[in-house]
Design a protein that fits this description.
mainly beta, globular, 2 domains, 327 residues, 4-stranded antiparallel beta sheet
Length: 327
């Protein structure tokens, strides 16, 4: 019987091949900051122009209106003069104006709804506010600086989403571990959730979005009995209908600090603790790609052109911008 002929490269060729592969991998990872498997994103350096050279500082949240105008909710730690102020920028990064100032005891989330109303979530002020796009306050939910539960008070709320019929869903996350539903006029409708690890229970419900099928996706930042938030490694995304019926959960996407969903049902998950952005098919939960080594990603948004904006509470703070590399 004839033996098989095996062709082995010389030791020198093997070393050269290994070095070439390693260099290509490192360049891909370092320059692009993403996994090598999927389409690539590039971090845009120094894209935003702060007014008069003033630093943005720590940013807790960012969102984009249909025209691409960026709303940046500043939480400059240790500086009460800038905490809770909102700066707006053109898509080019040009500063437009300070849209609001000092509207939150602790800035947590800013959200632009489908009717262009601007919503802010003040975690330590225990309030959610609705503004017109020109800054007029039209509704406040919760009582300022008064923590509680029930229909009229929150205990450190975290996020808000408004669905097509105008109903408002708020994650009352740090103190009460629940989702609260109101109608378009601010009338309390219902709530669900208690502290726990079972279906429909929460550890820290930190973010909420709605997909094209009308399902509510809630980022439960810590889904175990781990004491406190530091060191938690087992967050999950729980999925409900608009009446609070539990449908399913995903446990493979790290710690969901921030969520954004696009019209094509691409879900963007910001994981601050693991410095990662995950792109997910919201219809199936399938992981599509990741952006790695993303600093301070407390919240996330995506503009109509597909640029990804990350609200950073890291050492440098600010807003990170990632654009798709189409080469």
């Amino acid at each position: 019987m004839l033996g098989r002929m095996v062709v082995r490269p010389s030791p020198i060729v093997s070393v050269l091949l290994s070095v070439t592969f390693l260099c290509a991998f490192l360049n891909e990872s370092t320059d692009r900051g993403v996994n090598a498997a999927g389409p690539q994103y590039v971090l845009v350096e120094n894209w935003v122009q702060s007014p008069l050279g003033e630093k943005i500082g720590g940013v807790s949240s960012v969102d984009v209106d249909p025209d691409g105008v960026l709303y940046v909710f500043r939480r400059t730690l240790g500086d009460v003069r800038t905490s809770g102020s909102v700066w707006t920028f053109e898509p080019s990064g040009k500063f437009l104006r300070e849209w609001q100032k000092g509207i939150a005891k602790q800035a947590h989330t800013i959200y632009v709804d489908h009717n262009r109303f601007i919503w802010t979530v003040d975690s330590k002020g225990h309030q959610v506010k609705k503004f017109t796009s020109d800054g007029k306050l039209v509704m406040s939910l919760g009582q300022y600086d008064l923590a509680g539960n029930g229909p009229s008070r929150f205990n450190q709320p975290t996020d808000v989403v408004v669905v097509q019929n105008g109903d408002v869903f708020i994650t009352d996350g740090y103190g009460n571990q629940r989702v609260v539903k109101f109608n378009k006029d601010g009338k309390f409708l219902k709530e669900w959730g208690v502290k726990g690890v079972g279906p429909g229970q929460f550890r820290v419900p930190h973010a909420i979005v709605q997909d094209s099928r009308g399902r509510l996706l809630v980022g439960d930042r810590c889904g175990s009995t781990t004491a406190g938030n530091a060191g938690c490694t087992d967050g999950r995304i729980q999925i409900f209908d608009t009446e609070g019926k539990f449908l399913e959960e995903w446990t493979h996407l790290g710690l969901p600090f921030g969520l954004h969903i696009s019209k094509d049902d691409t879900l963007y998950v910001s994981d601050l603790q693991n410095a990662r952005i995950s792109l997910v098919d919201a219809r199936t939960g399938k992981l599509l790609e990741t952006l790695e080594r993303v600093r301070g990603g407390h919240n996330i948004s995506v503009d109509p052109a597909g640029n990804v904006y990350v609200a950073s509470l890291g050492d440098k703070g600010g807003v990170l911008r990632y654009t798709r590399d189409r080469r």
